[in-house]
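Exam prep: given the inputs below (a chain plus sodium ion), describe the expected output before reading on.
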Amino acid sequence: MLRYVTTNPGKVREAESYLADGSVSQLDFDYAEIQADELAPIAARGARDAYREAGEPVLVDDAGLFVEALDGFPGPYSSYVEDTLGIDRVWEIVHDLEDRRAAFRCTLAYCDGAGFAASPDAVDRGDRVAAAAAGPGGGTDDGGEDDEGGGGEGRAESLPVKLFEGYVPGRVVAPRGDGGFGYDPIFEHDGETFAEMDTERKNAVSHRGRALEKFAEWYADR
Ligand code: ITT
Ligand code: NA
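Solution:
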C-alpha cells in the first residue's frame, strides 16, 4: 500500500484519480518541514522521515503558491501564510501590484527504502537534495537524534528519494468559487479559478496533476 503523507485530505482526493483504486491511502503524519527556499529539499527530507515512521512506501507532497512580483512569496511558506494572513489578505497584497502573475508548484517525493534505476522522465535529484538538506539551510531541522545534519555519509543520506515536479502558471484574483482547498479561490488559470473547477478539470491542468502524472507513469513500470 502506498501512503500519501499529508494532513490535507484535498491532496489525497486529487491523487486518487492517478493511482489504481485502493492502492493509496492517506498517512496523516505532520513531518517536520525544514526551512528552505525550494520545495524539493523539504519534500525529500519529509519523505525520508515519513518512510522511517511508516515502514512502507510513502509519497510526500509539498506545494506552494509563488507570486512573481513578490519574488516567489509565499512559496515554501504558503502553509504558514495561509494560517496567519489567510488568502483574503494575500489577495489584498497582490491587488496593489501591477503584475499579478503567479504559479503553483508541487514536488512529490517518493521513498520506499530501496534504490531506484535511472529514469529519463522523472526528476531525480536525490544527491543534490541530500546535500542541500545537510547544508546551511538544513541546520534549522535540529531533530536531536537525527544523524543527517553532519553532511555526507550518514545513514539517512543513503535512503534514496525520487522526485517529481509539476507547475502551473496563472494569476492571483479576487476570491471566486467553493471547490478545492487552500489558495484555490484566488488562483485563476484560463479564466477560471481552481475553486471553480471540479477535481477532474483541476487535475488536468494543475501543478499536482502534472507531478502525479509523472509519478504514476514511473510507478506503474518501476
Ligand atoms: P501537508 O503539508 O500536511 O501536506 P499542507 O496543506 O500544509 O498539508 P503544503 O505545505 O504542501 O500542504 O501546502 C502549502 C500551502 O499551499 C497550504 O496552505 C495549502 O493549502 C496550499 N496548497 C497546496 N496545494 C494547493 C492547491 O492545489 N491548491 C490550493 N492551495 C494549495
Ligand atoms: Na507541507
